[in-house]
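Lecture notes, part 5. Sequence design as translation. It can be helpful to think of inverse folding as translation between two languages: the language of shapes and the language of residues. The source text, in structure tokens, appears below.
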């Protein structure tokens, strides 16, 4: 960050922004990675790029962060919520096709916990009905599906570098433009609706307002922070994976013995150790577990409340029961997982969870 300051250019698209882009190009073969101020903003850019109009329908899982839906709702889209699958919170494939109507413009799979959605199914459905696929890969950095990095399956995909993710810059994100037809407008939208990027490359002799846009370009200070994280990515990822695997081996017998659902890595996908979660059998069991762990100084937390039941959206929901989304809302609990956590910490937390279930069943 000091170096970015000394280079005398701390607004967007400076030296470190370019270093980050090169990293994503060489490591993941993302052709046009554009850093953004957040994943939320990358999703808003995607909504502008596919020209969402009022009345268009977007299919989104209900069990996700609010931005996945809100970015499209801002442009007037009607959100159609899909249920999660039985075995993990990702968008379920059963019944997905039935949600498509002539108004459907896009489907937005979210790779929950960094596990890839069934992208072969989703992409073939999308091709058949000629709808866009936009991946919300906020949690999916450095995770793969069928040998290809997540974030390379949709025409557009979005990542987050919020401090809760694996690779962070405080706030920050990225839009990966995988279909080059969107590139020119993506640069314009990110630069307040101007062709300033072209101007800086010397392609036009002055820049002007050419389209709708906003200010979605992060400062080079943020990019410098991010670049330092990227340089440490292998160390960060191997530490996280070590902790994740330890949780899994410590806790896997809970499934047989106490009916707790563990995060099984689906076929064809890898684990990026973004999150370690358990799915309890009931809301009461989860609340008791969270309370029990807190008495040992362990902060375990639940996650999304299904968006189809949210205060803002519930009056518009079409009354379909999204049973799995509701179950994950009520029963999923996340365990501490961060780089400075130790093997001893994970063993202690695992031991406390076993104590909880042994006491409960005795
Ligand atoms: C974190 C997250 C976002 C939002 O990311 P920001 O960078 O904070 O805007 C969106 N979608 C999902 C699935 C997330 O986990």
């Amino acid at each position: 960050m000091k170096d970015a300051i000394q280079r005398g250019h701390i607004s967007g698209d400076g030296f470190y922004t370019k270093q980050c882009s090169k990293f994503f190009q060489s490591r993941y073969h993302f052709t046009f990675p554009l850093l953004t101020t957040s994943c939320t903003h990358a999703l808003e850019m995607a909504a502008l790029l596919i020209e969402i109009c009022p009345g268009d329908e977007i299919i989104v899982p209900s069990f996700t962060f609010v931005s996945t839906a809100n970015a499209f709702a801002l442009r007037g889209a009607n959100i159609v919520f899909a249920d999660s699958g039985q075995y993990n919170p990702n968008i379920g494939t059963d019944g997905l096709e039935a949600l498509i109507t002539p108004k459907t413009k896009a489907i937005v799979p979210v790779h929950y916990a960094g596990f890839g959605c069934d992208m072969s199914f989703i992409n073939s459905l999308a091709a058949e009905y000629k709808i866009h696929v936009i991946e919300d890969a906020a949690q999916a950095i450095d995770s793969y599906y069928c040998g290809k990095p997540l974030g390379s399956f949709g025409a557009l995909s979005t990542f987050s570098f919020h401090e809760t993710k694996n690779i962070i810059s405080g706030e920050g994100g990225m839009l990966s433009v995988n279909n080059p037809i969107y590139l020119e407008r993506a640069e314009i939208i990110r630069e307040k609706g101007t062709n300033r990027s072209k101007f800086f490359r010397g392609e036009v002799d002055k820049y002007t307002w050419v389209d709708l846009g906003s200010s979605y370009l992060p400062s080079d200070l943020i990019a410098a922070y991010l670049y330092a994280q990227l340089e440490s990515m292998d160390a960060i990822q191997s530490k996280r994976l070590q902790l994740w695997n330890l949780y899994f081996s410590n806790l896997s017998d809970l499934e047989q013995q106490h009916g707790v659902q563990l995060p099984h890595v689906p076929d064809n996908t890898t684990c990026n150790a973004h999150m370690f979660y358990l799915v309890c059998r009931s809301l009461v069991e989860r609340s008791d577990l969270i309370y029990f762990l807190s008495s040992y100084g362990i902060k375990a937390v639940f996650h999304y409340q299904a968006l189809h039941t949210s205060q803002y959206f519930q009056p518009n929901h079409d009354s379909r029961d999204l049973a799995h989304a509701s179950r994950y809302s009520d029963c999923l609990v996340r365990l501490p997982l961060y780089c400075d956590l130790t093997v001893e910490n994970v063993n202690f937390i695992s031991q406390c969870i076993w104590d909880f279930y042994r006491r409960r069943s005795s």
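The translated text above is only one of many valid answers, since several sequences can fold into similar shapes. The longest strand covers residues 32-36.
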